[in-house]
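Quarterly update from the structural biology core.
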Amino acid sequence: MPSEVIYNRIAMLRAERGISRRDLAEALGVHYQTIGYLERGEYSPSLHLALRIAAYFEVAVEVVFSTEPFPRLGTGTA
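Predicted structure, tokenized:
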């Protein structure tokens, strides 16, 4: 049985908004390394944390997290 991987766009959302891992961690009340673990897919967030991350970025949770890999941005032909 494959492991349950949760894909996310946290790094992309942080970059778009100019937010550091440390700033995001402080806003969420978690250790800054937790953000790195989440971004690398080494840790899956609790539902509560996932919802708080989505709320922080003011987007739906599905914009941040998915059970399927997100399509790469900027690839393909126009």
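The longest helix spans residues 47-57.
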